Known about the structure:
Layout: H1 2-6, H2 16-50, H3 53-91, H4 93-111
Helix pairs in contact: 3-4
Amino acid sequence: MYVVKKFDIEYVNSKKETDRKIFNNSFPIFLNNLFVSGYTVANMTILGMYYSNYEIGIYGGAQKLIMAILMLTSMPINIGIFPWLSREFEKSTTNGLLLLKRHFYLLEQARS
């Protein structure tokens, strides 16, 4: 409510056609996130059927540490490179592809 009052934000009705287009364009992303979340939760549930609470706790802790490390390493890419790539693709598909290939090459070199 504070933000609404401070910045004088008002609700604007959108057209159903626009809403439908946004829904259709974003539905694959929603499905992807749904399946990833389901997969993440399902592994602990399935393991819980076969192993003790202690073993599940160790596994869960290790999994959270791994995810934290992955997040720290992928965050600069998500925050910095993807918006830059998006702008380049918007300007020109050719420039965007060249930049993408260059970054894949650099990532491959860093991995080696």
